[in-house]
Amino acid sequence: MEIGDFRLEQLSEGIFEVSQAGSIHKIRDLGKERASESVTRVGLDPVLIDTGSKVILLDAGLGMGLDNKEPEPDTSNIVTNLDIFGYHPKDISAVILSHLHYDHVAGLSYTNKTDRITATLPNAKIYVQKIEWEAALHSLESRPEVQGMGYEPDDLYRLVADGRIVFLEKELQEISKGITVIRTAGHTPGHQIVRIRRSGQTAYYCGDLIPNELYLNRFVSTKIDTDYIKARKARVLLMQQAWRDKATLLFYHSMYVKAGMLVRDKNRGFVLKKG
Ligand SMILES: [Zn+2]
After folding, report:
1. How many domains does the chain have?
2. Confidence check: pLDDT of 171 > 80
3. Whole-angstrom Cα distance, residue 253 to residue 156?
């Protein structure tokens, strides 16, 4: 996909099942295993932007298969997916994190042969809202650790200590020419989305504010957001703005339709344009 002269790619890690408790695992064989009622199926698609001079990632995936002694080393992850599109981890100059839930950040680091936590992308600066980091630290006091879709900041301490993480304090900030983060909160206290604008064309990376097209329904009821009211308001504002901008929406957790433009249906709700 192109936005002006920016090249955009969605790096698919596959389809996953999420239990009600928030644990997440990969589905190896879609035909064989059948989702039970207590699990939700989601895709997982970090976005790569090549501006011509910089390569920027939006969220970093689960990073399965990256660790030393990993039982399944050939799992699809940020490194294998960069390779598919002809990039090396050292080519990435920046990562913008929508928020700090495990399924968006775990790919940023891995355990190396000497059991040391190591940055997957050695040259990348990582951009996150300051209040999101604070929320992740707070969560350690109040919530039991769930391996999956909640906060697990342990591996991030290394990246923070190494000065790789840039903590953003403004609601709106341009990270690189044409690439702007917008803090929405709602899903988490410091959730941010990314606007990509070039030569009159626009795309929005929605993070978990609109994880997939099901969330375009303004009446959708969701338990995934920490502040449901704020999330719903931000979601509606984003849809209105994206519709006015004739923008492409990029989804992180979609199983099938990973991107699209909005049109209004007969009830003046927003749906994805067909075809
Ligand atoms: Zn997520």
Report:
1. 1
2. yes
3. 22
Q: What is the pLDDT of residues 257-267, one digit of tens each?
A: 999 999 998 88
Any residues with CB less than 8 A from the CB of 139 and at least 6 apart, and which? 150, 151, 153
Q: Is the residue at 196 inside a domain?
A: yes
For position 34, what pLDDT does the model report?
A: 55
155 Cα: distance to centroid of ligand 1 (angstroms): 17
Say if 99 falls within a structural domain. Answer: yes
Measured in Å, residue 133 CA sits from the centre of ligand 1 at 16
Q: Is the pLDDT reported for residue 13 higher than 60?
A: yes
Enter the DSSP assignment of 147: T
Tell me the average pLDDT across 132-138. 93
Give the domain extent around 54.
2-208
Is the pLDDT at 106 greater than 80, yes or no? yes
Taking 60 as the threshold, does the pLDDT of residue 32 lie above it? Answer: no
Task: List the helix and strand counts (H, then E) for the chain.
Answer: 5, 19
Nearest to 219 by CA among 239, 205, 203: 239
Evaluate whether residue 75 is within a structural domain.
yes
Q: How far is the CA of 240 from the centre of ligand 1 (A)?
A: 22
CATH number assigned to the domain comprising residue 107: 3.60.15.10
How close is the Cα of 107 to the center of ligand 1, in Å?
A: 13
| Helical (H) or strand (E) element with 263 | strand 259-264
Q: Alpha-carbon Rg of the chain, whole angstroms?
A: 18
- What's the CA-to-centroid distance between 180 and ligand 1, angstroms? 20
Q: What does DSSP say about strands 172-176 and 179-183: parallel, antiparallel, or unpaired?
A: antiparallel
